[in-house]
Amino acid sequence: MFPFVWLSRINKDDLIDKLYTFIAWSLVSPTLCCANPNWIPALVCAQCCLRADNYFGCGSTIVILIWLISILFIGGLLAWASERYNQNYPRNIALLTVLLDLLLMLSILPSEPITSEWITVFQIDWIPRFGISLYFALDGLSLLLIILTAFLGAISIGSAWNEIKTQTGFFYFNLLWTLAGVIGVFTA
């Protein structure tokens, strides 16, 4: 019960406002993003850097690291929920989800040769009292591994296209959540 005491102290309206602000600013144009250096950068913005105490990195790759995992989680839920409407919807949703994730990964590829430094880093204090933080980082090797993971995920969806006949939504839900876990491991 103790870990959940802090949840009762949160103003729910303020939390919802911050969530909507996060979603809105992660999808808007780069010029609005760069107006204040402490704002969250746009998903496709590559010009502005986020400068705050607990964040560091540059451009949209910070938000893309979060979206790489979130898209797979959301796609898995949609695939599972769409099974009750049509047996083919989960297949299509899973394939589109993995291809969208693969396109986001390819957009991160640097145009310069990869060095030993991080391509991007996302760090935020989660439970600062205990020194626990949420940390995602991406270097050249992990980028290649997550691209390979998405490519193999697309191949596995294609190979299971005609093989899985019952509970297709639940199968693709598990597959997409497993891919999200693997990508989370490679970026952790």
Any descriptors?
two-stranded antiparallel ribbon; single chain; mainly alpha; disordered N terminus; 7 helices; globular; 2 strands; 188 residues
Shape: globular
| Count of runs of 4 or more consecutive helical residues | 7
- Poorly predicted regions: 1-7, 28-59
- Counted up, domains total 1
How would you characterize the overall build of this protein?
By secondary structure, the chain is mainly alpha-helical. The protein has one domain. It has helices at 5-8, 12-25, 30-33, 61-81, 89-108, 140-159, 168-187, and strands at residues 120-127, 132-138. It has a two-stranded antiparallel sheet. A hairpin with a 4-residue loop joins β1 (120-127) and β2 (132-138). Mean pLDDT is 73; it is low at 1-7 and 28-59.
What is the topological layout?
Elements: H1 5-8, H2 12-25, H3 30-33, H4 61-81, H5 89-108, E1 120-127, E2 132-138, H6 140-159, H7 168-187
Antiparallel strand pairs: 1-2
Helix pairs in contact: 4-5, 4-7, 5-6, 5-7, 6-7
Short description:
This protein has 188 residues and is mainly alpha-helical.
